[in-house]
Amino acid sequence: MKRAAPVPLPGILIGMVGALTGGCGGSSDAGLVTIGGSVAGLAAGSAVTLHDNGGDALTVRAAGPFTFPTAVPADSPYAVTVAAAPAGQTCTVAGGTGMTQSANVANVVVTCSDLAFSLGGSIQGLNASGLVLANGTDTLAVPAGATQFTFQQPVAYTSSYAVTVSVQPQGLSCSVTNGKGTMPAASLASVVVSCTDQPYSVGGTVSGLNGQGGLVLANGTDRLSVTAGASSFTLPMRVPFGSAYDVTVQSAPGGMQCSVMNGAGVMGPANVSNIAVSCAADVYTVGGSISGLSAAGLVLNDSADPLPVAAGATSFVMPGTLPAGAAYDITVQTQPAGLTCAVINGQGTVGSAPVTNISVDCAPDTYTVGGSISGLHTSGLVLVNGSDVLAVAANAMTFTLPTSLPAGSAYAITLQTHPVGVACTISNGSGIIGSSNIVDVTVSCSPGAESALHAFSGAPGDGQSPYGGLLQDRDGSLYGVTYVGGVYNVGTVFRRAPDGTVTVLHSFAGGNDGANPRKSLVRGSDGRFYGTTAYGGANGNGVVFAIDTSGNESVLYAMGSGSDAQNPYGGLLLASDGNFYGLALHGGVNGLGAVFVVTPQGSESVLYSFGAGSDGQLPFGSLVQGSDGALYGLTSAGGAYGYGMAFRLALDGTETDLHDFGAGQDGAHPYGSLVQAPGGALYGTTRDGGANSLGTVFALTVGGTESVLYSFGAGSDGANPYGGLLAASDGNFYTLTAGGGAQGAGTLVQITPAGGETVLWSFGEGSDGQYPYGGLIETSDGTLYGMTSGGGADSAGTIFSFD
Asked: Quick check: pTM over 0.85?
C-alpha cells in the first residue's frame, strides 16, 4: 500500500536539524539520518535536479554519489524524485522511497539516459498490400487499408530521421511528405504517406493491314490512329491500376474489317501488351426475301455457290460471303416443282454492308399464248383473250398475248378490231393450256374486201341514188338518205338494221314536204335525226326536217326566197350552242349561197351571205366546228381565182378567207367538207385541180397555210372526190372518189398524214356499186361503211362495207 507523501518540515526546523547533524559521518547523529545514493549516465555538462519529499532540492552536475544536504529523523518517510531532467535525457529513480531507520540511506539510484521518441504519421489511399516504409535501417510493413503508422524503434532526440518507401504496394505508387527532419523532444506523428493507383500502358499487336492506313483504335475517349502497315500499337493514355479498359475498332481501313481479341479487362500491376487486332478484307453476306415458295426444289446460285431453299421459306442468305466491291449474280439454278421463280435485284456489287434487297418471287407455272401473223402491213389489229388485249404493230410476224395463263386454263383469241382496209382471220384460236406455251395460233391478214350490203332498186318502196354518207346509231343501225326514189320518187330516209334489213322510214313528197336530200343526217340532243333537202318545201327551195326512229317526219323550217338561204345541198352541224348550222348552195343577199342557223324550235336566220368578187360562192358541203369554237367550211367557186375557197366563220357571223384554191397545181372546186385532225390541222379534198387536174387531198392550218398532200392521177387511180375525208382510228385518212379506179367507176383510197396514197378498192365490177359521191364512216370494229350513187343489181346505188 502506497503511503502518503510526508509533510515537509518548516524551514526553521530543517535548519535546526542541520545544525544538530552537521559534521556527522555515515551514521546517524542524535537520531538524524541522510538521504542519498548515486547518479549514473548523466551526460557531461548536464545536471539533474532531485527532490526529497518534494521539498529538499539537490542539483547533481556529474555522475556519482549524491546526498541531500538536509538530514531527516530516523523512522521518517523519504521520497526521492527527479524534479528536472537534463536536456536531451530522461532520468529515473530506483529505491527512492521508504522509511528511514537508524542508518543513513545511501541506496537511491538515479539513472539517466539519452531521450528517444516515437516516429510515425498518417497514410492515405493504401488499398493494396505490400507497402514497406523505412527510417534508416528500421523498416515497417504496413497492411492494406492502414491509415496510421508508427515505427517500432523510437528515435533519439536531435537525431535525424528520413522516412522513405522501401517497397511499393502492388499496383500503387506511394510518396512521403514531411518524412525528413531532426527529432524533437517529443513523439512525432506528422509524416504523411500518400498512395495512388499506378497507371500502365495498353497495347498489343496488329496484323493484316498490308500497308493500309485508316485503322483507328479507341479505349473510351482515348484514340490512336495506327500507322499504315504497323504490327504493334500502344494507346496514348495510361490506365490506372484496377481500372477497366476496352479497346475497340473505331474505324477500319477502307474495304477492310478489323476485330479485337483480349481487348477488354481490368488493369493489373503491369503494362497490357496482349491485345491482338486482326484486319482482313471486308466480307458480307448476300441474301433477301422469298415470296410464294409453296413447293420444294428451289436452288439459287451465285457462280459456284448453290443454295437449296426449303418450301415455305420467306428469306435466304447465300452460303458464301463476298468482299466489298465484288460482283454478285443470283440466279435460279433449279425451279421448284410446279412453280416459276424469278429473281429481282439479283445482280449488283457488294458495298459496305450485307446485301439484303434481293427478292425471289415464285408463282404457279404459267404459259404464254401466241402464234404467227401473215399479211399484216399496217397498224390497227387488236387481239383479245378475255380481258387480255394486245395491239399488234404493223408488219408483225409473231405475237404473244401479254398475260400468261396457268395450266388447264381455257383460251379463245378473237379479233377486237382489225386494220382499216385489212381483213384478218384466226385459226387455232381456242383450246386448253397444257404444260407448254401455245405457239400455233395463226392470224392471216389480207387486203380488205368490199361488200355490197344492199342494192337500191328504185322501186316505189325503196330509195335510189344516195349522194351522201351514213350515220350509225347507238344500236348499230345505219341511217341515211337517197336523192330520189321512194313513193314519190323525190328521195327517202332509210334504216339498215344490224341484221341487214333495209327499211324506208320516210318517202319525201315534195310540196310542203322536202324533196331530194343529198347529204347525211345528224342526231339531235332529243334523239331525233335532222337533215336537209335541196328542194321542196313551201317555197321549193328545200327544208330542214326532223325524223325519229319510227319514221315520224316533220318540216322544221322551209327555206324562203329572196335573201334567205336556198337549196341546202350539205348536211347540218349540231354546234356547241345547241343550234343547227348549214350551208345553202344559193340564196343569201347575193344569191351565191349562205350560212344559216336553225334553232331546235325551227327559228332560222342567215348568219352570212357569200358575195361576188373574191368571196366564196356556191358551197356544196357541210360545216365543221373547230376546237376553237369557230365554224370552218368550203365553197366550190369564188375566191381570188374563181375555184373556191376555205373560210372560217365565227358564231357572230364574222367571216375570214383562209385560202383561195386554184393557183398553180393547187386543188380546185372543193365539193366536200373539212375534218379537223387531233393535232388541230384541217384536211379536205377538191374535186378538180392538182398535178393531174383530177382532184387533190390538202392540209390547211387554222391560220390559212395550205399544202397539197396528194394529187389524184390517171389510169386506175382515184379521181374527182366529192365527199370529205374520214380521219380513221389508225391515224390515216380515207375517202371516196366518184371517178377513176380500174373500172372508171370510183375508188376507196387511203391517204397517210404524210401524203402516201393507196387504192384499196375500185368500184364498178359486175353488180358492185359505182360512183360514190358521199363520205365514209368507221364503226367501232374498224369497218368502213359508205354508199354509191349508182351500180348494184338495179343500177340505183348501194350500201357497202369495206372490211
From this structure: no
